[in-house]
Amino acid sequence: MQTFKHYEDISDIPYAKGCGAVQGFATGSTYAYTIKVAHGTETIPKDTRAMVYRTHLRTRKTSLMQNARGGHSDYTTELGHGNDIVLAHDSSGRLFMYVATMRSNNALDIVKLEYKGNSYQVVGGYSLHGTGISAVSGITKTGYKSSGTVIQAVLKSSDRFYEVDIPLDRQTGILKVSAEHQCNFADLVVAGEPVRHFIHQGITYHKGQVFCPLWGGSEAAGKPHVSVVAVFDLDPQKGISSLRASESLSFRIRSKKYSTKFEIEGVGVDDNPDAGARRLWFNTNRISAPDDNGETPHRDGVHAFRDYQPG
After folding, report:
1. What does residue 219 show for φ and ψ, rounded to 5 degrees?
2. Environment class of residue 258 by beta-carbon count within 10 Å: exposed (0-12), middle (13-18) or buried (19+)?
C-alpha cells in the first residue's frame, strides 16, 4: 500500500453563483467533467443548483458548460447532490451523462443529461428499486450489452455495490437493481492505518477494478486533510470477486497545505498518453490552513497523480 504526497494541479474549478462544493467527476478521452453544487447559503439552499464544468486533459483549460434549456443557462436545479457521473454514448454518437443525486433536494436517484460540446440538457431520470438500496453515492459503467443498447453499471450505496442495466433509449422509469455485494470497509487498512468512519464518495471502474475514494472529514474520523482510494477487484460477469481492498493498489494521500480540507470526490483512470501521460485523475474540495489574517482560502480543482500505475 502507498501514501502519496505528490500530485499535479491540472485546473482550478471556480466558485460561482452559490456553487461552492465540488462533487461528481468523470473522465473521457479528452475531457474531465466536474459537478459543483450549492453548498448552502441564506439565499441559496444546499443542493438546489449545480454547475457542470469540463476540463481539457491536455490544454488544462476549464470551461463552464451551458444548460441548453431550463431557464438558467449557467446551472441546473435537477441534479441534487450530483455526487457521481457516468459518461456513455449510443450507436449514433449521441453523448450522455448519468448523475447520481443521492436523492437530495427531491431529485430522482439518477438524472440523465445529453451533452454536445460545451452544452447539455436534462432529458430524463430514473428511480431505483431493490432490496436494501438507499441513496446512491456512486455510479460507474462496466460496459455495454445487447449490441451496445444497454449500459451495464455498478452502483454504490453505503458499503454495498449493486448491478443495474440502463437501456440507452429509455429516458425515464424505474430501474431494478440486482446482485448485491457487501464490501468490507469496516476492517479496511491502508498504508498501515485503519480507515474507519470515512465518508464515501463517487466510484469508477477500470480494467477489472473499482476505485472508491473515501474522505476522513467526518467528526468520528477527524482527518479532514486525508483522503483514501480503496481499490476492489470486480468482474462484470461475476460481480465483486474480492470483498477486501487490494493492498497493492489502495492508497492514502495527506495534505499539509490543505490541512483544513483535502477531500477527493471522484477519480478517473485514462490510458490515453496524449492526455498528458497521467494515469489517475481526481477532483477535490480543498481548503488551506489559516493564513496570517485568519482566512482559509479555497482552491478546488482537477488534478493527477504523477506516478500511480493501475493494474
Report:
1. -60, -35
2. buried
Residues 123/114, Cβ–Cβ less than 8 Å: yes
CA dihedral 230, 236, 242, 248 (to 10 degrees): -40
Do residues 56 and 31 lie in contact, with contact meaning Cβ atoms separated by under 8 Å? Answer: yes
Answer whether 234's CB lies under 8 Å from 246's CB.
no
pLDDT 10s digits, 163-218: 999 999 999 999 999 877 778 888 888 888 889 899 999 999 988 889 999 999 99
- Read off the pLDDT band of 293 (50, 70, 90): confident
pLDDT at 182: 78
How far is it, in rounded angstroms, from Cα 72 to Cα 67?
7
Which amino acid is it at 129?
Answer: H
CA separation for the pair 82, 27 (Å, rounded): 15
The CA–CA distances, whole Å, from 140 to 110, 171, 298 equal: 12, 18, 28
